[in-house]
Amino acid sequence: MKLSLIPVGIVLGLWSALINAVSYDNAFNVNKELIHYNYYKFSHSNSFEVIDSSNIIGYNLLNQFININVTSGDINWLIQDTTEFNQFVIIGSNVYLYSDFSHTINIVELKTGILIRSIEVIQPITKVINFFNKGLLVVQSDGTLHFINDRRQSQIHLDYSIKSEFVYQQLNGFMYIITYNGHLIKLNSNYQIVNQFDLSANKLSQFKDFILITDSNQIYKLVESGETFDVKSISSSFQNVKIISPTYFYNTESNNKVNIYTIKNNKLESVWDNEFKGSEITNVELTPFALSDYLIVTKANGSKQVFDLTDLLIIDDPYSIKEIKVKSDLLSIPGTVDFIISSSDDIPHLITINDALDGAIYDINDGSLVQTIVHSTSQFLPIDASTVSLIVDKPSSKQAINQVNHLLNEGTNIILWNWVKRTYRHLGELGKYFTSFVSSSSTPTGSEDDIGDLEDDFGFVKYVIFYDQISKALLAINSKNGEVEWKSYTKDIPQKLLQINGNIIVVSNDSVLELDPLDGIVLSTKPITGGKEVIKVQAGEEESYIVETEQSFESISSYTQDIYLFKSNEDKIEGHKLIKGSTKSIATWNFIPQQDETIITAIAKDVESSTVSVGIPLANKSILYKYLNPNVIAVVTKSHDQVLKIYLIDGITGNLLSVFEHTNNEIIDFTSINIIIDDNWVIYTYFIKSPRLEQRINVIDLFDSNKSIKKSGNDLISSFTHNSTINSYSKKSFAFPERIINLSSTKSEYGITLKSILVLTESGYLMEIPKYILNSRRIDNRPLVPDDYISDFKVSPYEPIINLNTLAILNHKHKLILNQNEKGTILIKPTHFESTSVLCYLNKFNYYCGLVQPSKSFDTLGHGFERVKLLGTIVALFAVYIVTKPFVSKKRLNDQWLYS
To answer: What count of other Cβ atoms lies within 10 Å of the Cβ of residue 600?
Structure first.
């Protein structure tokens, strides 16, 4: 009996589809998180210091004290909000943070950034000195001298107050301090006073190796004899002379020549000079390292020459000075400072780097380039992320668009010719498929490119778009790898970003730009005049933007249906209607709260949110219908006596739907209020300052006992056009263990997935709280009965405290850096899988992207999926089908003979 080809074809097709589906496993279950920390740049060249060949520490322009890995650009640790500090000293394994004329010194661990101790001094600090790597000598404004380290604080009792500037040096186990008035103080390493002496010397600018240089460039030698000191004059007619050693000095002459002098016959004589041609000298710096001394000369074109003075100081031979020319094309980087450090193999390295961490590392022996340092290119500084940011689907490539257009346009009137072309294309695709299948079988995990293509196909890759203050451009960042996909330079700083009809709308003060999301190219520019704000509107399938003016709303085009909008200020909410066919709105209603109330915020339901459930089935087989009015506006007000009130208003008619008022028993921090509306609920959070410190989450679930819900097309809409009062609701309040900075809710493509509430906590964590936890119908006055479990999904008794569940933290080990004055923005974009959405958070300190799955990954395959067993089962079933089919056919034939 011949085997039918139709079942075989069906089985082969199913087999191919299943194999193809299983191969998607790699695309969806790798831990996909992206974190990028912004450090921007250091405050200035003196605000940072190189610790070793890998790490730099210092203050940046974001008021942070940071430890950065110089080779990778990663932040090892940081201390947030250091506005009261601007200087630091590294002593052993600790860092001392302080500021001139402040009263506080913070001591932190150099390796971890953990605060060890905070010290308060009585008088403001005027100067600090590293004292033999044991601690700090702190000079206070009253002239007293104190020793401070991580274990103790002691005052050093002086006969003379150090109230003026001074110079000092540490030599032979003693510290010598000389004030501008010529008073000398000698301390031993146990910060005890050994001697005090008055010198007859003018104001000093340098003190090294018992050589003194005054402000007038006079050179003296300090001679210690027992308990007394003597000052011997060395005449000098040279300007800006600096000390190398007790016998050698250097200065710069005419910006193109460096001289080295020695003392002969009590005078300075030149023993070495070097004239630099082509570019004048901008800086000459003596840098000691280990037992060596290096003179680093920087010229205006950025080039550097290093002179090793080690042999000169040992054998007194000027011809022994070694010159090392640094070889690199990166020497033109402006504003660099130089550090000499030891590498892992004890070879001296020169790090020349600027405050933006652009620079290079060189081998000091031959000047060769060891490593390039360029980090500012990967640093971003978003401006006002709450409005000037957007997350969009990764647009299709031009090649893919052309292929689609080609397929759409390939048809002709000749049917046979169309069939030949289609067959040819399908054969080519089949060949590519088998080729990719063979290559993927040799590498079971698949290549990253293949995985990336699958992610693109299913919407796992998004573009996060924002305006960068560093590059002065609009950037599109890939949510998967953090790479810059495109830059678009705009004339003005954007005020708002929107996506309309797939394109990016950039709103500035006087114009609206339309950009291609694929490459950031400007497609059109339209001027706006008198515009207060630009708002995205959607009327049916139409998407466009409307300009809010002082009195009304104005549109660039007319619409085929009416559009309802509202504008708000501290005093009132005003409703507007844009009649179809018109381009200017008319005012329709006003809402003015009570006289002593101020409007804090007013929000409407997110138009991109969707839901498919109109009600909740109950145990008695009835339906508790949701109140799904899409026109609800939530208005938050506060009264003069600090009472919080929530008004719910119909955005079409202006009717007051409901009011929820708090009592004045609690003092609320009104700057901490966050509110969202979605589905049939309103959730708002706030922080209580009295009678106790507590973070609250309030939930209001709205229901419709009149069942006045209808469906139009694919959208659930309200039929409460004129009678929209909310006639049923429930509410509950919960306490949360951490302060909430920002609030949002999840979205999915079709609204089937359960909703979760996303909260950003003060400690820098994005947390997911399932909506069934924040359920206002949780029972608190009796034990649960079986009907309660049937009537509510995952119902549990009401508990006023939501416990902190570490498993609900979405950013896992990647802690976010926050600023209380800037909430940042939480961006959500669904993928083409109903279970999964892409979540991003953006502020000026960092951006983070990851995945959120409120109902788990119910429509994706996990890593543990056993594809080999699946394929083996399919093959076995197919073999059984082939073997048993003749027997089944024969049995049916016999049955027909027996029972016919």
So the answer is: 16
Long-range contacts: 141-146, Cβ < 8 Å, 24+? 141/101, 146/121
Q: How far apart are CA 853 and CA 863, in angstroms?
A: 16
Query: What DSSP string describes 149-165?
Result: -SS-EEEEP-SS---S-
Q: What is the DSSP string of 111-149?
A: TT--EEEEEE-SSPEEEEEEETTTEEEEEETTS-EEEE-
pLDDT exceeds 70 at position 30 = no
Both tokens of 767, joined, read 């947390």
Structure tokens at 426: 């399908």
Q: Record the tokens describing residue 355, joined without a space.
A: 């405050």
Residue in this structure with the two tokens 């010397």, named with its chain if needed: 201
Distance separating alpha carbons of residues 793 and 215, to the nearest angstrom: 82
d(CA 53, CA 344): 8
d(CA 566, CA 658) in angstroms, rounded, equals 18
Does residue 235 contact residue 195 with C-beta atoms inside 8 Å? Answer: no
3-class DSSP state of 193: strand
Range 890-894, long-range pairs (CB < 8 A, 24+ positions): 890/1
> How far is it, in rounded angstroms, from Cα 778 to Cα 767?
21
Distance of CA 443 to CAs 260, 448, 745, Å?
A: 66, 11, 39
Is 592 buried (19+), middle (13-18) or exposed (0-12) by CB count in 10 A?
exposed
State the pLDDT at residue 723: 43
64/70 Cα distance (integer angstroms): 17
- Torsional class of 487: left (φ above 0), alpha (ψ -120 to 50), beta (otherwise): beta
Q: CB 581: neighbour CB atoms within 10 A?
A: 10
214-228, 402-416, 518-532: range with lowest mean pLDDT? 402-416
DSSP string, 313-373: HHH--GGG-EEEE---S-TT-TT-EEEEEE-TTS-EEEEEE-TTSEEEEEETTT--EEEEE
CB 194 within 8 A of CB 183: no
Instruction: Check if the beta carbon of residue 760 is closer than 8 Å to that of residue 816.
Output: yes
* Segment 181-184 long-range contacts (CB within 8 Å, at least 24 positions apart): 184/229
Residue pointed to by tokens 């991580």 = 150
- Each domain of the chain, given as residue ranges in start order, spans 1-24+871-900, 594-736
> Which stretch of DSSP H or E encloses residue 431?
helix 415-442
Residue type (1 letter), 830? P
DSSP 235: B
Return d(Cα 93, Cα 111) in angstroms, integer: 7
Q: What are phi and psi of 710, to 5 degrees?
A: -130, 165
Secondary structure (H, E, C), 668-735? EEEEEEEEEEECCEEEEEEEEEECCCEEEEEEEEEECCCCCEEEECCEEEECCCCCCCCCEEEEEEEE
Question: Per mean pLDDT, which range of 284-288, 527-531, 595-599, 637-641 is the poorest?
Answer: 527-531
The two tokens of residue 531 are: 């515009």
> Which residue, among 650, 781, 646, has the nearest Cα to 700 in the 3D structure?
646
Distance between CA atoms of residues 341 and 346, nearest Å: 9
> For tokens 């990967």, what's the residue?
378
User: Which tokens go with 547?
Assistant: 């300009």
pLDDT band for position 118 (50/70/90)?
A: very high
Nearest to 148 by CA among 120, 176, 187: 120
585 pLDDT above the threshold of 60: yes
CA-based R_g, the chain, Å: 37
Residue 830 CB neighbours (<10 A)? 22
Q: How far apart are CA 618 and CA 785, in angstroms?
A: 13
Of residues 732 and 377, more confidence is placed in 732
